[in-house]
Amino acid sequence: MVSPKQLLSVIESTLLARSPPTAAQRIELIHAIRQSLPSFKALLSYPPPKPSDRAQVQSKEVRLRDAGPISLDDQDVQIALKLSEDLYLNEIDCVHLIVSANQEWGLLGREPLEIFRLAAGLWYTERRDLLTAIYTLLRAVVLDQGLDVDLVTDIQSYLEDLISSGLRQRLVSLIKELSREEPRGLGGPSCESYFLDSKGALVERKAVISRERLILGHCLVLSILVERASSKDIKDIFSERECRGTQWGLGLLEASDALSTVPNKAPVLSQDASFRREFHEIVMVAGNDTVVEGFVDCVRLAWVVHLIMVQDGNDAKETLNSTLSNDMKSVCSCLDVVFANNVFQFWLDKILHTAAYQNDDEDMVYMYNAYLHKQMTCFLSHPLARDKVKEAKEKAMAMLSPYRPAATHNQMIEGSGHPPETSEAVREPFVSLLEFVSEIYQKEPELLSGNDVIWTFVKFAGEDHTNFQTLVAFLKMLSTLACNPEGASKVFELLQGKTFRLIGWSTLFECLSIYEDKFKHSLQSPGAVLPEFQEGDAKALVAYLTVLKQVVENGNPIERKNWFPDIEPLFKLLSYENVPPYLKGALRNAIATFVQVSPIMKDTIWRYLEQYDLPVVVGPNVGNSGSATDTQVYDMRFELNEVEARREQYPSTISFINLLNSLIAEERDVSDRGRRFIGIFRFIYDHVFGPFPQRAYADPSEKWQLVVACLKHFQMMLSMYDVGDEDSDAVTDQSHISVMGHSSPIHMQLPVVEVLKRIRNVCLLVFLGLFTPYPMACCSSLLPYNSCSEAACLFTHEVPKIHLPHPECVSQMLKLSKSCAQSWSKAYQNFCYPLNLYFVPSFPKCHKDARRSVLFCVFIYDRKQSAYPFEGVNFLITERTNQIYGQLLEKAVQLSLEIIILVMEKDSIVSDFWRPLYQPLDVILSQDPNQVVALLEYVRYDFQPQIQLCSIKILSILRQSFHFVSSVFTFDYSL
């Protein structure tokens, strides 16, 4: 029997490779599947503790399977028994785990807790490998991955046999088991909460169990699409009501059966009238747990669709003979519960908007969205459902108030100016339904193609809005539907014509003009106070502007040039202090989409910005002890520090930077090397980015939006700042500039050397200060060990099996060895392309420098031994998986690495004639080699190959000039 790790390696190399599998790989795959059938049938089943085995371990003399007797000391016994109690494992198997951990990691000198965590980590890694293996096989059959038809058929036959043997029931049992706070699940109160994963990172047990449950849920859904479920399967799954993760999977199950269009997959449940009657009685029973009831409501919604499809498939005569069939009575009663409990809001809050769903595998998310699309298309096309939606709309129009009191300008400055979410709107099913439809098509716009049902629903939903809550939800849905050229054109025409009596582009621009006239009139009247902005108007304008942004951004490049000839009204409210910052953010976001419409439009936007937007006054740096100006000016600094910072929300500043970035990116004249943008750069550097770690953020995603916007600006500025020989004169005159700075032009106050130094400091602050465990102190106190010694320990120890990064990254590793012979390049390429690689002792003999370069990459990529806890890449992996803002954080890391590369490339040009005023980045890094390793560790970040490539490129730059890395390369690894 192959091990789970070997099985997964064979499956991934055959099914996930970029090239079609060879005949030998296919044979190896089928052979591995056959050998692993017992493991799949008894999925994650392990022998339980036994008194006799416990006594044997306590005797300190244990005989392992396929091995001779081994002796244990007191520490080994304690760890083995602790593993058995915490994981509900057989005591002999726990001893085997300790032995495996010693072979993998080397346990000599480690603390008992660390040994326990390493051994437990191996066990969870084995579980994850087996789960991933069966999950990958199911995906290969259900999802179109371009595999050979015969190979898919062979895999499907094995999976069908497994499902018939009880695999689906085992999946449900495991989901239920892992939901309990006991040793076999989440762990009891006395169980250890953390362990060390395969890369040596400390991870929480609950997080790992949650990931296992997610994979099991995927497997359950995929198994249903491989082999239709019987009525007994449905009842058994639903009986486990506390297994929340199975309930919406069950809903997909029922819908997939009813919506089946595959000729060889005939519906099973649709033909069983007795099952429909019995299951309806079961599904309508109310429970006490509100969260469980929410998931059951998801099943009820799918059950409605199922019954509708069954009814549509019946003969017309049967429908005419009965005024209201039993199935239709069931549909009506189920619809009442679905709308009363507002299942659409539950879908949004507990499933679609969660980090697990947002960060999940793209193919799986597409599959779920595709079935939701089918459900809603069927739902909205049926007369009974349409009547219920109409009733919900009328109720929302009657209950929701048209306006609510607006926040005053003083309230906005004091931090309470952002309108709170209206609780009544959250509870209204019609509003939630509109947002639910929006969410389905937001990621999968191609599902809208030819979807007449949705566009018919749009026309119905857009009529006669009497309050801003339903109007905002409707416009949000329109913005989602405008996410491709076809949708953008349809939405533009809907709002351009007379389809809706009160909704259109004219309403947007007229409202902007009305408020601008009111504000202008107030300013012209002595002693008058600026009128307050109504919350309803502000939110409706934001929704309109979001639609405008999507229409222009995704519209046909030729057609959109003629859509909005006059965009001046979008600028006129930007300078007024009583306009809410979130509305200013929406205005600038909409304006930014016009930058790429045409060069003429770009120049027009620059002109209007200078005329209407808030000024950027570059004053003293934050924290400087200069006297404040006597006159308080409402500029971007004031709005950032006195309005947005108090509210802990920064939509205006983020949109301002993004708009400027869009404009600067389209500039073709860079003859002045970007000096005309130095004022903007100083504002962003000194007042936005500098204090950002100390600011509070109501939404963590907004924090990383701000960071990404700033980093993009710094990257563009650095790219434009080509350094020439004439820049050496700027350094000579720097003392004069510092004295006369107040009277010198702004571009003379910041020579090229200062721009490079500031952007370099950005790199150190963001990357080394935030994405590594210790701030960049550059002092010897942060050197608890010698990095070269650590590398020596690694390569003289028994070398573990490693996983290579993306093939393009491997290619970049090879480019580090230009002096290699062709035979070495080919030998190494053939050697490292497999997913698993033992590079000792069979590493090819080759040029020493080339070998050491690649070895250092490999050492960083899969470093097992670490006396110094580099958590940067591990932190990013955790956040990318578990947080909504994970992708923004990933983008910030990528931009930081790209900026570091830009700085290093320019260092090679300027470092000689700018010393000692300017220190190259590699010299700064040399003061703390730990940070170098933290930088290079991103070579093992598998989510984004571009980050791996950046890390490898940094290594290739460092090894040319950095004495620390050179010392690592010149170390004799005895290879």
From TrEMBL:
It is found in: Nucleus. The keyword Transmembrane does not apply. GO terms for cellular component: nuclear pore. The keyword Zinc-finger does not apply. Keywords: Nucleus, Transport. InterPro entries: Nup186/Nup192/Nup205. It comes from the Eukaryota. Belongs to the NUP186/NUP192/NUP205 family. This is Nuclear pore complex protein.
